[in-house]
Write a structure and sequence with these properties.
The protein has six helices and seven strands; from the N terminus they run ββαββααββαβαα. It is of the alpha+beta class. The strands form two sheets. A four-stranded antiparallel beta sheet has the order 3-4-2-5. The protein has a three-stranded antiparallel beta sheet with strand order 6-1-7. β3 and β4 form a beta hairpin.
């Protein structure tokens, strides 16, 4: 009834480069809930803002935890330009949140109760591959779509070698 469809061996239906953002927080002092809870809620607010406006470029995300202290979101973006545009847009919540963080840091008012981090990657086509066995669409496949593994190659070597679209034809010449 609530089970998602499982499709055997599948892979992500990606074309071109993949943009991945890992963004998260670390709770340095559990007792300082008034410091880290607003940070966590801000992430949920930003994800909601992006979900309401698909033109911003967020294709999908996965929320994960690395430990009882560290929480993060793996985000898949349409392009690094759209990621930058969202991060710097004055009308979006991310920009306002960072103005506050930067102001507190300059004033020496950060207390070390919560850590913030992010890592961004642009992964060129041919430098990534994915396989899912008896999994509903997840991660990269949920962001870009899911296809039978045969469409991209049975082996990791084949999937790494896969090229898509007109750009692929130009590179082959």
């Amino acid at each position: 009834m609530f089970t998602k469809q499982v499709l055997g061996r599948t892979t992500a239906d990606t074309e071109g480069d993949v943009v991945v953002l890992l963004i998260g927080m670390r709770v340095n002092h559990f007792w300082a809930v008034h410091q880290w809870l607003p940070v966590m809620m801000a992430m949920f607010r930003m994800l909601g803002e992006l979900a309401r406006n698909h033109d911003r470029g967020l294709l999908g995300h996965v929320m994960l935890t690395a430990s009882p202290r560290t929480y993060y979101v793996v985000q898949y973006w349409e392009s690094k330009e759209k990621l930058y545009a969202y991060a710097h847009s004055p009308e979006m919540f991310h920009h306002r949140a960072w103005v506050i963080v930067n102001r507190k840091e300059r004033a020496g008012k950060t207390r070390g109760h919560v850590g913030l981090w992010h890592e961004a990657y642009v992964v060129p086509e041919g430098s990534y591959e994915a396989i899912y066995l008896d999994m509903p669409a997840f991660g990269l496949a949920r962001a870009h779509g899911q296809v039978p593994v045969e469409r991209r190659g049975r082996s990791a070597r084949d999937r790494f070698a896969h090229r898509s679209g007109p750009k692929a034809a130009e590179r082959a010449e």
